[in-house]
Amino acid sequence: MLKQSISQKMLQKLSPQQIQLMKLLQIPSVNLDQRIKEELEVNPALEEGDDESADVFDLAGEGEEKATDEQNEKDEILDEYIMDYLEDDPSTYKTSTGQTPTPEQEKQTPMPVERTFHEYLMNQLSLLNLNEREYKIAVHIIGSIDDDGYLRRDPLAIIDDLMFTQNIDATRKEILGILKSVQQFDPPGIGARDLQECLIIQLKVKAVKPGNSPDQKKKIEAGLAVLTTYFEEFTKKHFHKLERGLNLQGDDLKDVMDEILKLNPKPASAFNESSAQSVQYIIPDFIILNSDGFLELTLNSRNAPDLHISEQYKNLLNSYKESYKTNKTSRQAKEAVLFIKQKIDSAKWFIDAIRQRQETMFRTMYAIMQYQQEFFKTGDERKLKPMILKDIAEISGYDISTISRVANSKFVQTEYGTKRLKEFFSESLQTQEGEEVSTLEVKKIISDMVGGESKKKPLSDEKIKTTLERKGYNIARRTIAKYREQLNIPVARLRKEL
To answer: According to CATH, where is 1.10.10.60 located in the chain?
Structure first.
């Protein structure tokens, strides 16, 4: 038995131009240059820089010649297709805005050149008097050290790797002996297997330094006792237990704690290859200036590159026009023109996408600026209004997804620092009077409260909740904990100081 059914679906299909625009919107200014370079490489009809051509490439009204009767119907269609295209003026496709970038915008992004962490260790390894076997083991140990300077691999795993890769049957004692030599490298703490060992190594290095005063030596000895015997109490900040165990009073214990806190928990941070690669120089996409209470918004010149259609490709079209007048155009020439048309069309689409990107970004940022103008005028984060993507979408006339793409990975430079656009979006919180305030305002208050607290008796989440309630904010304790974690503020116990 056959059954028939009818279903109706609504589908939204995006054109290649729309897809290209959405991809460009997501790209921050710092990466836009690379995207343009990629397009310039694949499309020779697109050129960067000012269009110095004084002549206007205008073919309108000059395509009235008819194909001869000797041409077949296929060629007539091809001719009509090409001539319709020739009436378009590719010289009008430019992205130049006539704005001269400021010297700050023209600055090149600096590129740091540094030695890698492992190269630094290998240079020191060459100074040790090791035989071939020991050298290979040491090289493997150095290669197993993490980017933060720790050796977190078990010696048995290192032994197995040496057996399978180097055919070296090493013992645990042999591995630990060579590791001890590696731990003497600079910076102190390299090759430690945990934080405790890392800090102990650093203190031992400080202990043998010449010129230490008796008082300094005493502090170091007490610090070593803290790290070896009372490390758990140290990490949990149980100061009263440390005072009893070390027989030290408040000020003396504080001096010892300060000595430990001077140590580096990540000894390889200065030589971290991954850290060097992750350094990002923020280039703002927008600039907002406050001129006597009037906000001025400008788009970074990196977002408005000078792009135009290649003069060479326009000349090729001119050549075809002249040959077309005399009916001396071959089939191969027409196909070549079609190829040129494809490249110029692609260049036009890209230029149009860049233009739309500029317009979309400007309108979106302008809407945000108007919505949060109190903040941009004063710099007071407490004056930030609750704002979601829908609010800006209604003002700008764009879709919520478009606003999300614009806000993603974009920065705005203000007189009060460079801000990420996402920071301006927040949910609302209702006060006891029924007024809606931004959650950013609450976070700012929490941050100020923690900054002004007594470090001997830091505020607990419950005390912060009680204080906020007195100020008129209805908020749960678990919400306080969530906001505190988002602000990277540790719990009260870990904020305690002597």
So the answer is: 428-495
Instruction: Indicate the residue type of 382.
Output: R
pLDDT in tens, 383-412: 888 888 888 999 988 888 888 888 888 899
Round to whole Å and give the CA distance between 304 and 335. 34
Name the more confident of 377 and 251.
Answer: 377
Q: What gap in Å lies between CA 252 and CA 248, rounded to an integer?
A: 6
Cα→Cα distances 277→115, 269, 284, 314, 323, Å: 12, 12, 20, 43, 55
Both tokens of 62, joined, read 């000059």
pTM (two decimals): 0.57
Q: Phi and psi (nearest 5°) for 428?
A: -100, 155
Which pairs count as long-range contacts for 136-140, CB under 8 Å and 24+ apart, including other chains? 136/162, 136/166, 136/168, 137/162, 137/168, 137/170, 137/174, 137/175, 137/178, 138/178, 138/181, 138/182, 140/165, 140/166
Q: How far apart are CA 457 and CA 497, in angstroms?
A: 8
Cβ proximity of 355 and 348 under 8 Å = no
Q: Please give the span between the terminal C-alpha atoms of the chain, in angstroms, as a whole number.
A: 85
Note the pLDDT tens digit of each residue in 254-313.
Answer: 888 888 888 888 888 766 544 444 445 678 889 999 888 889 998 887 766 778 787 887
Per CATH, domain 428-495 is 1.10.10.60: yes
* Residue positions counted in the chain: 498
Name the average pLDDT for the chain: 77
Confidence of residue 328 (pLDDT cuts 50, 70, 90): low
Phi/psi for 454 (5° steps) reads -80, 120
CB 226 within 8 A of CB 245: no
Distances (CA, A) of 311 to 56, 163, 210, 214: 11, 65, 72, 79
Task: For 131-151, give one letter per residue: b (16+ CB within 10 A) or e.
Answer: eeebebbbbbbbebbebbbbb
**Measured between alpha carbons, how far is 271 from 121 in angstroms, rounded to an integer?**
10
Structure tokens of 372? 């949060």
* pLDDT on residue 367: 93
